Amino acid sequence: MSASTESARPGLVIGVGSPHGDDRAGWQVIDQLAEMWAAEHPLLDEEALPTAQAWQLHKAVVPHDILDWLTAAAQVHLIDASLDATPRVRRYAVIVGAGAGELDLKEIPLDDHEPKFASTMPSVYPLQLRSNSTHQFDLLSSLALASILGLLSPCVTLWTISVEHATPTTALSTSTQLLVNRCADQIARALK
Amino acid sequence: MTNPVNDRTRVIEVKAISRVEGEGALRVVIEGDQVAHVQLAIYEPPRFFEAFLRGRPLEDVPDLTARICGICPIAYQMTAVHALEMALGVTISPEIHMLRRLLYCGEWIESHGVHMHLLHIPDFFRCQSSIELAKQFPAEVTRGLKIKKIGNQLLEVLGGRAVHPVNVTVGGFYRAPRKAELQALVEDLKWGRDAAIEITRWVQGFDFPDFEQPYDMVALQHPSEYPMNIGRIVSTSGLDIVAQDFEKHFEERQVPHSTALQAVRIPAQTPYFVGPLARMNLNFERLTDSARQLASEACQWPCFNPYKSLIARAVEVVHAFEVAIEIIAQYREFSPPRIRYEPCVGTGSWATEAPRGLIYHRYGIAADGKVTFAKIVPPTSQNQRQIEVDLKACLPSLLLGDDHQTALACERLIRTYDPCISCSTHFLKLEIERR
Description:
The complex is a heterodimer. By secondary structure, chain A is of the alpha/beta class. Chain A contains five helices and six strands, in the order H-E-H-H-E-E-E-E-H-E-H.
């Protein structure tokens, strides 16, 4: 798949999250991307923005909501919070395996904008994603289902943001906000 | 999976029940050939929603209660606004009532669609997950996901967004939809109705375990509507009360093995059953004509087999699509979208029908419009005791198999209730003993 073919696909960005504390991270990335795009297109009014955007932005509260929007034709970026001891943003290429519903994740260093699918790249599957507990049908299961149903594009990138807590009514922590900023910036660059 | 304590005692444990929302476990103790003990243990952390609603402006309640559950936010919003409107003496208009029904249709469609296709139907084909089911039935799973998507679209148009809808407020809606916005959904709704009929015909042919219990089924009942937002609370044992008398007949109690409260009938302290099967048994004649016809073809009513809750959900999806189409056909734009009110001292309580069953709220309001008291009883906490009783009744027929198969069979029974464990852990009673 050449870079030019990838960039020709419409972009789809989905943040998985909830309103609880740092679990907002995925949604916050979506909000920031929307603000970035609106800032670049000041003449478009709020109602016209969603249809005028080159990329679709969505928020999902449960992972299987991504199945509402996935299409094999899209360049897809998914963002979810992760339970990771080290505060960081990580990026993975989602690779469809040989068997039906089989997936693999290959981590891509953030400063490298050209995805590499070399077998020497470390695989860190399975992840401890925050979305794991919802019906135990987590994000990776949703992607596996999408793959079986022919909804999964070959250009799917999973971004994870390490979070500290997901306590109801608490605000996003400062450290997570910094990670959100970094993630949004990285995705915006990837979508250009 | 099995911990033999001695030669006569077997303990079967399921440390994490799969394909249910939230985190729960099951512990069964068998002595000889008798089921001595069944515990549905919820260990999801309690989230204290009732406590932190106190002192908040009443306008915050719909938005905050919607956060109790990502699967059924409308159920919490609807029950909350109706209860608060009662406390304030607000009477909503027929137009607002219709729109609220339409919003609830969206949630029933979305929630039932998800439960059937991602959680419950796999059980009937011995699939570990919907991923395995999709390998056998890709067209059917795709159909089910499209139904879910249409439900979400309806929630988005009416609720402002599908993710924790923001358009619901005390007194009505912040914004009433334009006719054209609703009309744009009709083609998909009609497709969804036809698909839901196919789904009902598909599931009615499944091999349902032969298990019936003399449940005390509880649901709302209304003289002219299949109940969603309004009705009296009735039961198959003859109860017939206004929703405001809920706490005279039902109570939540804490149990040592669970972070979630369990509700029982009082004074008898007996379990009861809420959900689509209870609704359908108590409101069969209020279904739309085609939904009622489908239900009659699918099985005998009243039905007391919890596994056939799947049929009830499928029929309710047909019904919800037909009600949604009818409401949109009749819809005329109106103003104002909400009824104004002045904060005043008051108490209000209300019950509505969440996808999983009866849900009850009670609020107290101070003169400054701040919440003084909140009580929230979700459907899953009401079913928990009944689930334990069901398991105890069902287990003798399951014990001939190995313990792994027994555990799987127990999980399948639990899944018929479509439990939403996150909802049931919204509150924990805290007692402090100082010595």
